[in-house]
Amino acid sequence: MTESPQRNRPDSPGTAPGGDDARQNQLSKRGGGAPATRGRTTIADGVVEKIAGMAARDVVGVHAMGSGLSRTFGAVRDRVPGGKSVTRGVKAEVGESQTALDLEIVVDYGVAISEVARDVRENVIAAVERMTGLEVVEVNIAVSDVKLPDEDDDEDESESRVQ
To answer: What are the two backbone dihedrals, phi and then psi, of residue 40, each rounded to the nearest 5 degrees?
Structure first.
């Protein structure tokens, strides 16, 4: 194995007098440490709710999110431009480094509810932790309804009679 000659650059570690310690001292004199540690990032509840809502909807067996009443109001809201809500059926409580979620789902008839709930929980936790860096301490899931094969969606019933 051949070694390539190291070029002397003022910004490379070990080339400044004193090595890495001197470089750290220079950084701390300028702004108080590494740039990644300067300041604070806060994540709104709504951001976590959107991520969780999208992740929950991706699971096979989840027909809809929210209770019957919230889905009815949501169907009206969806008809307004820009009114579609991915947070329907999702409530998040966000702290400095942790979050807890409550989800309300409607499942398709014939699926194993416990398996769908497990899959939703896993998908939501993975998505929220990956995207936000927050630790998800709990995901509570309430199954509020089962969508039967012969049932029409609530959203279809609320369509306007006039086009």
So the answer is: -135, 145
